[in-house]
């Protein structure tokens, strides 16, 4: 479970969430997801200002092995996207919980985070 940060929340579709000090939520894909995908060669990010519903498609990831949708784990408005991923999509492989983040949202309801998996539950979900 060493590659599953304890301070984050997780969803079954393999996105992670980090609540920031300003109340925004940073979203990315988990190390498990990027391992399944292989070398990521393209990342599609949501538009800043988009209002997304929970579990709505927020983007996509293409790798040498597969393509996969990225979902918004909670409802909210997209505040920022990680433009670095456009020129260096491998950041999602090399640093999935740091420089490889995807987007930040302003949650429609901050309490939506309460019902998500913690690190232990996610580890059990993926059999880690």
UniProtKB/TrEMBL annotation:
<dbReference type="GO" id="GO:0019464">
    <property type="term" value="P:glycine decarboxylation via glycine cleavage system"/>
</dbReference>
<dbReference type="GO" id="GO:0005960">
    <property type="term" value="C:glycine cleavage complex"/>
</dbReference>
<dbReference type="InterPro" id="IPR011053">
    <property type="entry name" value="Single_hybrid_motif"/>
</dbReference>
<dbReference type="InterPro" id="IPR003016">
    <property type="entry name" value="2-oxoA_DH_lipoyl-BS"/>
</dbReference>
<feature type="modified residue" description="N6-lipoyllysine">
    <location>
        <position position="65"/>
    </location>
</feature>
<comment type="subunit">
    <text>The glycine cleavage system is composed of four proteins: P, T, L and H.</text>
</comment>
<dbReference type="InterPro" id="IPR000089">
    <property type="entry name" value="Biotin_lipoyl"/>
</dbReference>
<dbReference type="Pfam" id="PF01597">
    <property type="entry name" value="GCV_H"/>
</dbReference>
<protein>
    <recommendedName>
        <fullName>Glycine cleavage system H protein</fullName>
    </recommendedName>
</protein>
<comment type="similarity">
    <text>Belongs to the GcvH family.</text>
</comment>
<dbReference type="InterPro" id="IPR017453">
    <property type="entry name" value="GCV_H_sub"/>
</dbReference>
<feature type="domain" description="Lipoyl-binding">
    <location>
        <begin position="24"/>
        <end position="106"/>
    </location>
</feature>
<keyword id="KW-0450">Lipoyl</keyword>
<dbReference type="GO" id="GO:0009249">
    <property type="term" value="P:protein lipoylation"/>
</dbReference>
<dbReference type="GO" id="GO:0005829">
    <property type="term" value="C:cytosol"/>
</dbReference>
<dbReference type="InterPro" id="IPR002930">
    <property type="entry name" value="GCV_H"/>
</dbReference>
<dbReference type="InterPro" id="IPR033753">
    <property type="entry name" value="GCV_H/Fam206"/>
</dbReference>
<comment type="function">
    <text>The glycine cleavage system catalyzes the degradation of glycine. The H protein shuttles the methylamine group of glycine from the P protein to the T protein.</text>
</comment>
